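Structural prep section.
Before we set up the soaks we want a predicted structure of the protein with zinc ion in place, mainly to decide which crystallisation condition to try first. Input record follows.
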Amino acid sequence: MRNITIFDTTLRDGEQSPGASMNLAEKLEVAQALVDLKVDVIEAGFPIASPGDFEAVQAVAKMVRGAQVCGLARCNPKDIDRAWEALQGAENPRIHVFLATSAIHREFKLKMGKEEIISRAVEGVTRAKGYCSNIEFSPEDAARTEIDFLCEVVEAAITAGATTVNIPDTVGYAMPAQFGQVIRTLRERVPNIDDAVISVHCHNDLGMAVANSLAAVENGAGQVECTINGIGERAGNCSLEEIVMALRTRSDYFDANTRIHTPRLVPISRLVSGITGMEVQRNKAIVGRNAFAHESGIHQDGMLKEPTTYEIMRPEEVGFTKTDLVLGKHSGRAALADRAKELGFHLEGDQLNDVFDAFKKLADKKKEVYDADIVALIEKRTTSG
Ligand code: KIV
Ligand code: ZN
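Run finished without errors. Recording the tokens verbatim:
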């Protein structure tokens, strides 16, 4: 079974999410939670971006033990030198250099030809390699880059010393089968590809970030870049909790897994949501409030008989305490009797029927019937007779 490296970029790409900025103390709290989650790499920030970002990378680098700490840099000497300066205290530092390669970025943003891109990429990786052995190179907008040119750039970056080559779908444009094919082609055509780990970094503009990352893993990617709750630029990045649980739950299919300590997923999701103010939608996979909640009578009855009827993961695996059988108008007698039992009442026969009728009338008027409502219904019926 392959181990997939989890590279978390909540503190860098996640923080680029409009409205998600964090102060130094908050970044350190998130960094410690990422260590407890056992992520392999923490991208702590973009040191040249601002004095605050530099300070944050420096502080995270000094504090974190047990995970690699990474700083981002464009392919120019100033950025790379600043990133290295910020990473000084790190136990296991990584410099991540990036340069756009797609025709659109070459023509409109960088105004550079293909040759210049290759020489800039090589210069950047070489400079970073002079500082540290662990170097990641990203051809930004790789998913929209001509495949022959992408192969050339990747080969040159590896020859210059990149130990990880990251393939970003910067604007979330790729489709899973197509993105998987990009990874397969790199493995087939780049002669030195085995000298580096292939990583992917997918954005979620079309809601494909997790699917594209999984397609890449199926085709040989060994690292996935992601963020807690999927926060990030625009529609966000690949969500860490989703990719991790997809690999864990379907490790039979992928023949791959991660080292993530999954019971920490819900606590870190709540921490990041609380700090950034970016709420997690109720039906969000894995960490949403409804992810392990069941309301329909048929589902609740199945769950009470055998949880695997309607759950493919156990709530405890991701950090919830238990399955939530929500009592509402779709619920059945079995769930009501079960909740009554939890609350200390034994209901059966006519008494159960009677309370159930009253419960259904109340449930038609309310979205959710709470424990206090159930107790009131039962007490009214058991004490009045
Ligand atoms: O989306 C992107 O291309 C990036 C790079 C810096 C890796 O965030
Ligand atoms: Zn990104």
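Observations: The radius of gyration is 25 Å.
Flagged for discussion at group meeting.
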